[in-house]
Every structure is written in C-alpha cells, then in structure tokens.
Amino acid sequence: MYTMEQRQRAIDTFIRLGHSYAATVRELGYPSEACLSNWWREYERTGGFGERRPRRKCFCQ
C-alpha cells in the first residue's frame, strides 16, 4: 500500500515527464503502469487524493 505522499509524488513525476507512464515507473521504481493510470484518473476526477479508495480495485493501493 502506498501513502498519499507517494501517490502525489508519482502524479507530480508523471506530469513533469510529459504524461509518460513508462518513464514515471522507470524513474520512481513504482507503481505499475496500471496503478498509475488509476491514480491519474482519480486525480483528474477529484483534483487530488481523498481518503476513500477508488472504485476500481488496484493491487498497489
């Protein structure tokens, strides 16, 4: 399970690297591209990360 800070760091890195899933995972060493995609959808939908879990199950939450 990743902390909100780790999730935010991944999103910030994802944005900085031009929305490249592969480059983000390569730089950070986490999460999977599928989880990062879920995190990005949640971030776009809500503008951040809340305490509630996303509706889609992601094994790296």
Mind explaining what this structure looks like?
This protein has helices at residues 4-16, 21-28, 33-46. It is an all-alpha fold and 61 residues long. The protein has one domain (4-46). The longest helix is centred in the middle third of the chain and has 14 residues, at 33-46. The chain is globular. The termini are close together. The mean pLDDT is 88.
Structure characteristics:
mainly alpha, 61 residues, globular
Write the layout of secondary structure elements.
Layout: H1 4-16, H2 21-28, H3 33-46
Percent of sequence in beta strands: under 5%
Low-pLDDT segments? none
The class by helix and strand makeup works out as mainly alpha
Q: Into how many domains do the coordinates divide? A: 1
Percent in helix: 55-70%
Helix count from the secondary structure assignment: 3
The average pLDDT is 88
Major beta-sheet overview: none
Note the run of SSEs as H and E. Answer: HHH
Gross morphology is globular
User: What's the gyration radius in Å?
Assistant: 10 Å
The CA-CA distance between the termini, in Å, is 5 Å
Count of DSSP E strands?
0
By oligomeric state, this entry counts as: single chain
